[in-house]
Design goal:
CATH superfamily of the largest domain: Metal-dependent hydrolases
CATH topology of the largest domain: TIM Barrel
Number of helices: 14
Helix content: 25-40%
CATH class of the largest domain: Alpha Beta
CATH architecture of the largest domain: Alpha-Beta Barrel
Number of domains: 2
Distance between the termini: 51 Å
């Protein structure tokens, strides 16, 4: 079995329970697992030795919320300055044009960008199923698998169209029977619950304003039957709160409680607009949260109260969210945004660089219920590792604290990335150079979809 020794790094940030940082130590990988972590590598025999002078080694980041197809719709004129509901209505008719090739290509491009920026595991919330596109979820899985990233696709859904009081048009919604039948199909085909799995499926009705209460309840039943996780958007905007009050007579978190969604195998994207009572309920249920600071800033949705959640039982992670509301899929930038945004709301001591990095690593692993496999550098865990090169100009003068420099000094890409024991990035470039060939075709598809050609 192939053995890789990482040694001589300026710092190894383990993100273990003690937040241990090892200076000049080593990590030994055998096959797809970490088998040893320590301070003195002398006497260790390996097939490959990676010297880390001037670099910092971390566990790979875990991105817990994305919409990969939206890499095709970045920077769309007319969308950039709208709030969420108006933004969605503007883009729905363009998104309705996607097909299998568009989804496959955009998934690959988005995952490549994530790999280059430190994510070794990503979730994706795929809820858009234009009529007649029965295998479009399969195309997303194919695209992600081209890149070698550890993938958690969420089979999303929309069943409440505009004519029935929801937000999306008829062209992108499905019946509840269609949704539940296909959810069962994709779980049975793709979900792998084995240790160190590279592919796990979750169920993810889109949002309170795009699915029916019955679908939310039936999704819980199906998730229980197959023992998969549940995910949805929640409490993202003030408009969503107004919608829930008008349609259901209660606020979003109370609505989730009524539907049986306050459980520890659920994670919610955003959770921006929370009352103290909401926080108590979410903490008691030990739910997960995907904080998406750049998207919330772009759409003017508000600032999630992450700093005030640190001492609760809510599991907090980070997500880049869809590229149409972020315009990047850059995970390490999201770490910095999370730190800075909490300081805007709560003060300079609200969130440290290390706390933000922990949210991006172990926080994400906990949300996806994989904390025993990924999220930290410990013997027995998956060999998902990333390194940042501090010799680059943006880190000049910042070496007194190499780990914090990654966040404070604006790192934007990794020097190397290993996923499940396989090198995916070296010297800041994808190891599989053929993936770069997808960019021209991705741009062609994007222009066609945006312009309606």
């Amino acid at each position: 079995m192939h053995r890789t020794l990482f040694e001589g790094f300026d710092s190894i940030a383990t993100m273990d329970a003690k937040w241990r940082e090892i200076h000049g130590g080593y990590v030994l990988v055998e096959g797809n697992r970490i088998v040893d972590v320590g301070e003195d590598p002398r006497g260790i025999v390996a097939d490959e030795v990676i010297h880390g002078g001037g670099k910092v080694l971390l566990p790979g980041f875990v991105n817990t919320h994305h919409h990969l197809y939206q890499t095709l719709f970045r920077n769309v004129p007319g969308a950039a300055d709208r709030k969420l509901f108006d933004w969605l209505v503007f883009l729905y008719k363009r998104w309705a044009r996607i097909d299998e090739e568009a989804v496959r290509t955009s998934a690959a491009i988005g995952c490549c960008e994530l790999l280059l920026s430190g994510a070794t595991t990503t979730s994706d919330h795929f809820y858009l199923f234009p009529h007649g596109r029965g295998t479009i979820f399969d195309a997303e899985v194919e695209g992600a698998q081209l890149t070698g990233i550890r993938f958690h696709p969420c089979r999303g859904s929309m069943s409440l169209s505009k004519k029935d009081g929801g937000l999306p048009p008829d062209s992108v919604v499905q019946t509840e029977e269609e949704i539940l039948t296909d959810c069962q199909r994709v779980i049975e085909r793709y979900h792998d619950s084995q240790p160190f799995s590279m592919l796990q499926v979750a169920l993810a009705p889109c949002s309170p304003f795009s699915v029916t209460p019955d679908l939310m309840r039936e999704s819980v039943k199906l998730a229980d039957e197959y023992r998969v996780l549940l995910h949805t958007h929640l409490a993202e905007t003030a408009d969503e709160e107004a919608f829930c009050l008008e349609k259901f007579g209660i606020r979003p978190v109370d609505y989730m409680e009524e539907l049986g969604w306050l459980r520890d195998d659920v994670w919610f994207a955003h959770l921006v607009h929370l009352s103290p009572a909401d926080i108590d309920k979410l903490s008691t249920a030990r739910v997960g949260m995907s904080h998406c600071p750049s998207s919330n800033m772009t759409l003017g949705s508000g600032i999630a109260p992450v700093a005030s959640l640190k001492d609760t039982e809510i599991k907090v992670s980070l997500g880049v969210d869809g590229s149409a509301s972020n315009d990047t899929s850059n995970m390490v930038r999201e770490v910095r945004q999370a730190m800075l945004l909490q300081r805007v709301r709560y003060g300079a001591d609200a969130l440290s660089a290390r706390e933000a990095l922990y949210m991006a690593t172990m926080g994400g692993a906990q949300v996806l219920h994989r904390e025993h496999e990924i999220g930290s550098i410990e013997a027995g865990k998956a060999a998902d590792l990333i390194a940042f090169d501090l010799s680059r100009i943006e880190f000049a003068g910042a070496h007194a604290d190499p780990l914090a420099a990654i966040v404070h000094c604006g790192a934007d890409r990794v020097d190397l990335s290993m996923v499940n024991g396989e090198m995916r990035v070296r010297n800041g470039r994808l190891v599989d150079e053929s993936l770069y060939d997808l960019i021209p075709r991705h741009n062609e598809i994007s222009c066609r979809l945006i312009e309606g050609r």
